[in-house]
Amino acid sequence: MLRRLESYAARKGLTVNVQKSYIVNFNAYRNSTFPVVRLYNQELEVRDFFTYLGMLFDKHMNLHHAATRATTHALMQLYVE
User: Fold this and answer.
1) What are phi and psi of 66, to 5 degrees?
2) 34 with 53, same domain?
3) For residue 49, which of 58, 63, 69, 79 is within the disulfide window of CB 3.0 to 4.6 Å?
């Protein structure tokens, strides 16, 4: 599937930043293993969370962390101005 992404990006003149690309296994069991995933022949890092458009997503799909982070950032902005 990622080879298709590489081909599509090449046709459109786009590239994917591998350093900013991660794998999060949302359906992970406690002791499950995940295969090595490569993009442009570089192994993608497996993480427990990632940030997309400022929103924090974790492997448990728990929005508590995202809400806490958003609240903290909003409060910081109130005190900065």
Assistant:
1) -65, -45
2) no
3) 58
Backbone dihedral angles phi then psi of residue 49, each to the nearest 5 degrees: -155, 165
Q: Give the C-alpha separation, 4 to 34, whole Å.
A: 20
Residue-range definition of the domain harbouring residue 72:
49-81
When the pLDDT of each residue in the chain is averaged and rounded to a whole number, the result is 84
| Entry pTM | 0.64
Give the three-state DSSP class for 15.
coil
Residue pLDDT, tens place only, 17-34: 999 999 888 876 666 677
- Total structural domains within the chain: 2
* CA–CA separation, 7 and 44 (whole Å): 18
Q: What is the pLDDT of residue 40?
A: 93
CA dihedral 18, 19, 20, 21 (to 10 degrees): 40
